[in-house]
């Protein structure tokens, strides 16, 4: 079932920024829907898909944080390091009201893991608990060994996200700097966009480096300051 939730550009924040406020481009309607699912006001399962850097992991973590603030038991689970072990790990998550399962498509092709995801999905459904999955591609474009797992995920609500454009990346950098008490010149933002990987995670990691370097200086972030911090980028 497709919920009709709009496709929006979202940005991944750092660990200190987990929350819906740190997501760029999140309109009120989509935020309200995500909050309702996190709070258990809506019993549904959700698939969030999009390319690297579009903010899938941040959405999942923000939903877990929101659920916990609402007094619910919630867990975030990254599947990637658990390949081959999901049959042991997933049953331990079934007591939660919300479980956010990041990158389940990283174990595709492993029948035991896909079967474990299938049984976990059914158990959470029976318990009227919610699951939120992240996928690199929409369900219909993802290859599963287990057709029943594909069928279950196809029945979820779906949110498709896009990576940020340059204007969104600039807004994200300004917001991340402001959250750390830094003031960043527009020219400095554009300098970073020209010289760094434009993936949201890479840009936020660079902001964290700047934050550490400027902690004692308490100075505006200018191009000369950035050149001092990132000399390897200065000639780019």
UniProtKB/TrEMBL annotation:
<feature type="domain" description="Hda lid">
    <location>
        <begin position="166"/>
        <end position="229"/>
    </location>
</feature>
<dbReference type="InterPro" id="IPR027417">
    <property type="entry name" value="P-loop_NTPase"/>
</dbReference>
<dbReference type="InterPro" id="IPR055199">
    <property type="entry name" value="Hda_lid"/>
</dbReference>
<dbReference type="Pfam" id="PF22688">
    <property type="entry name" value="Hda_lid"/>
</dbReference>
<protein>
    <submittedName>
        <fullName>DnaA regulatory inactivator Hda</fullName>
    </submittedName>
</protein>
């Amino acid at each position: 079932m497709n919920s009709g939730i709009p496709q929006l550009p979202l940005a991944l924040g750092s660990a200190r920024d987990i929350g819906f406020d740190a997501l760029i481009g999140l309109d009120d309607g989509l935020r309200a829907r995500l909050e309702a699912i996190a709070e258990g006001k809506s019993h549904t399962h959700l698939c969030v898909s999009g390319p690297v850097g579009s903010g899938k992991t941040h959405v999942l973590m923000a939903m877990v944080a929101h659920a916990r603030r609402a007094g619910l038991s919630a867990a975030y689970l990254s599947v990637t390091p658990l390949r081959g072990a999901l049959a042991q790990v997933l049953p331990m998550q079934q007591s939660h009201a919300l479980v956010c399962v990041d990158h389940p498509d990283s174990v595709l092709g492993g029948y035991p893991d896909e079967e474990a995801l299938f049984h976990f999905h059914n158990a959470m459904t029976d318990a009227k608990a919610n699951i939120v999955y992240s996928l690199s591609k929409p369900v219909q474009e993802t290859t599963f060994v287990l057709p029943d797992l594909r069928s279950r995920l196809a029945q979820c609500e779906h949110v498709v996200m896009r990576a940020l454009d340059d204007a969104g990346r600039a807004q994200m950098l300004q917001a991340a700097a402001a959250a750390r008490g830094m003031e960043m010149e527009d020219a400095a933002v554009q300098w970073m966009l020209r010289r760094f990987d434009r993936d949201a995670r890479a840009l936020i990691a660079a902001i964290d480096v700047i934050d550490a370097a400027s902690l004692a200086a308490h100075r505006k972030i200018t191009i000369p300051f950035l050149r001092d911090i990132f000399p390897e980028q200065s000639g780019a």
